[in-house]
């Protein structure tokens, strides 16, 4: 499964133990846990703006430690551009969705933009 940015944001910021438990159970269920390098960027950038560099590094390192991070290559970039154009969605979402599509992965997200891949809703 490919875990999308909203999954990480919810895990890192939720104050609801039930929600956190449900999210962590998804990770535990995954045979292989992947993340896009775009999610690392988004988490780092948002955290940097709101909580500073130390917390941003901690969160990025947690993702890199616990997930296999897939980098965007030219094939993913092209497929993402086509999805972004067709669906009129943000670049980050289209690149993450293209990554899931390329590797035939379900995507763990609650983002309605992710219409072109199998989703596991959180």
Q: How many helical stretches?
A: 6
In terms of DSSP E residues, the strand content is 5-15%
* CATH homologous superfamily placement: 5'-nuclease
Count of the separate structural domains: 1
- What fold name goes in the CATH topology slot? Rossmann fold
The main pleated sheet reads as: 5 strands, parallel
Topology overview:
Elements: E1 2-3, H1 5-13, H2 17-29, E2 34-36, H3 37-51, H4 53-66, E3 68-70, H5 74-87, H6 91-102, E4 107-108, E5 119-120
Parallel strand pairs: 1-2, 1-4, 2-3, 4-5
Helix pairs in contact: 3-4, 5-6
What features would you describe in this structure?
With 122 residues, the chain is of the alpha/beta class. The protein has a single domain, classed as 3-Layer(aba) Sandwich (Rossmann fold). 63% of the residues lie in helices and 10% in strands. A 5-stranded parallel β-sheet has the order 3-2-1-4-5, sandwiched between helices. The longest helix has 15 residues. The model has no long low-confidence stretch (mean pLDDT 94).
């Amino acid at each position: 499964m490919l875990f999308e940015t909203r999954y990480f944001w919810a895990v890192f910021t939720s104050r609801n133990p039930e929600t956190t438990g449900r999210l962590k159970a998804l990770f535990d269920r995954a045979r292989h846990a992947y993340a896009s390098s775009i999610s690392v960027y988004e988490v780092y950038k948002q955290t940097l703006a709101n909580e500073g560099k130390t917390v941003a590094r901690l969160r990025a390192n947690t993702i890199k430690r616990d997930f296999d991070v897939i980098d965007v290559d030219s094939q993913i970039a092209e497929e993402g551009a086509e999805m972004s154009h067709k669906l009129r969605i943000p670049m980050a979402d289209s690149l993450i969705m293209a990554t899931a599509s390329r590797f035939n992965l379900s995507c763990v997200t609650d983002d309605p933009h992710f219409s072109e891949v199998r989703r596991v809703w959180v």
